[in-house]
Amino acid sequence: MTELENLIAASIDNSTREVFATMLDAQIGFDGATIESQMSEANDGVVSFIGLAGTWTGSGSLACSPAMACRVCSRMLMTENQAVDDEVLDAVAELTNMIVGGVKTHLEPSLGPLGLSIPTVVYGKNFRARGAGVAEWIVASFGWEGETLLVKVCLAPTTVTHAHAHATGHASQIEV
Amino acid sequence: MESEILVVDDSAAIRKILQRVLRQTGMSIGAIYEAGDGQEALETLKTRKIDLVLSDINMPKMDGLQLLASVRASAAWRNIPMVMITTEGGESKVAEAVRLGASGYVRKPFTADQIKEKLTGFLEAVLP
Hints:
By secondary structure, chain A is an alpha+beta fold. Chain A has helices spanning 3-23, 66-77, 86-111, 158-168; strands spanning 29-36, 43-54, 56-64, 114-116, 120-130, 137-144, 147-157, 173-175. In chain A, strands 1, 2, 3, 4, 5, 6, 7 and 8 form an 8-stranded antiparallel sheet that branches. Chain A is globular, with a radius of gyration of 15 Å.
């Protein structure tokens, strides 16, 4: 990985562990980071997205099983959530906001000011997601109570992202 | 007499957590009202006597900075303590909030102790 990719991976690691420790009173284990090309495998479960914009543009994303989403919500809100409902999706959205917000804060000294959008959460089966732009995703894997949480971030200089998107006509899409 | 608090956040999860944390302070808190954005918050301020506002910054429709500016521009509400809650760790949003008259800010993620510590002074000031 490049120096920037290592910085992003370290930022994801720090932010994710901090959010779990403070908001869930839980320790989550970092299992390493890899680079993933744009087209991801088909997903089942809960996936969230949040946009990043500034001189660099991209997205952050969380992916986990429905069981982990329920467990995160139960731990965060001190409730008993057995199935994915609005409360669980809202908790995952907020988890995304805080984790990617932390990554943004870690990266701003190197990349300049970044804005954060409102998060979106998707729950379903056999869906595939991709974002516009040329950047690859840095994918960090975490283990917690036998479940896996994937935290993904892609970032590219704004001019490159826009030029590519306009040239190819790519747009954000979710295939369900 | 108990203080009435308005919690403003587009995340129902965060509103729920803040409700719980505020109740845990052990202070004399009465009603805790909730709003999902700045517009809803302004509607609540029109109909309730609010002693303290705790508001997220990044929200749809009307964000926390716009809400803060509206509150500080109002003769009726300008003295209400307003504490901002934000994932924005950078200085720009926080500096803007301070410039607009924020009474303080708390960065997400937060612990219950951090919220309590930040709010205790404001709550003591507004409590009879």
